[in-house]
Amino acid sequence: MCWGAFGLVWILPVAALQPMPIRSKRITEIAQAVRHKRDIALNVLATHAPSGVSWSTPKGGFNIWITLPPHADTDALLLEALKRGVSFLPGSTCYAAETIHNQLRISVTHLDDKALQVGVERLCSLLSEELKSLDSRHDRHFPIV
Question: Is 99 exposed, middle or buried (CB count within 10 Å of its CB: 0-12, 13-18, 19+)?
Fold first, then answer.
């Protein structure tokens, strides 16, 4: 089933205009589709994410929050991700009161299943490389005595 270029987000307002039986069925279909895509992304993260990375398991919605170690900077990481054809929202853009640089948010609804899987795999590969690089730089600047 194709949900269009803007993904599942735009279906809910349209569904609200439909009669109740059709609306209930449509909302159930949308929830199942979002859950399916969420599960694809979560399975890839569980298989490919490097040690030290954690993520949320949303009960609803279409975003997954990924947390990197405290010394990571997702603002800087975004530039490299874009070069690899992957995009995410750095966490620093989502907090008004404080700046958090080690979190990022991915959306799972607007890609087909295969593209979502490949995109999350690429992101995990980038995270692995970045964390290895950060660890080596971190060790050089803060030697253990």
Answer: exposed
Is residue 3 assigned to a domain?
no
Q: Strand pairing of 89-90 and 54-55?
A: unpaired
In a domain, 109, yes or no: yes
- 30 has pLDDT over 90: no
Closest by Cα among 83, 81, 59 to 68:
81
- Torsion of Cα atoms, 63 then 41 then 56 then 104, to 10°: -60
The pTM of this model reads 0.78
Q: What is the CATH number of the domain that holds 68?
A: 3.90.1150.10
The predicted-structure confidence for 37-74, as pLDDT tens digits, reads as follows: 999 999 999 999 999 999 999 988 889 999 999 989 99
Burial of residue 127, with CB atoms counted within 10 A of its CB: 0-12 exposed, 13-18 middle, 19 or more buried: buried
Pairing label, strands 89-90, 103-107: antiparallel
* N-terminal to C-terminal alpha carbon distance within the chain: 59
Number of domains within the chain: 1
Handedness of CA 110, 115, 120, 126 (dihedral sign): negative
By residue range, what is the domain housing residue 85? Answer: 8-140
Is residue 12 domain-resident?
A: yes
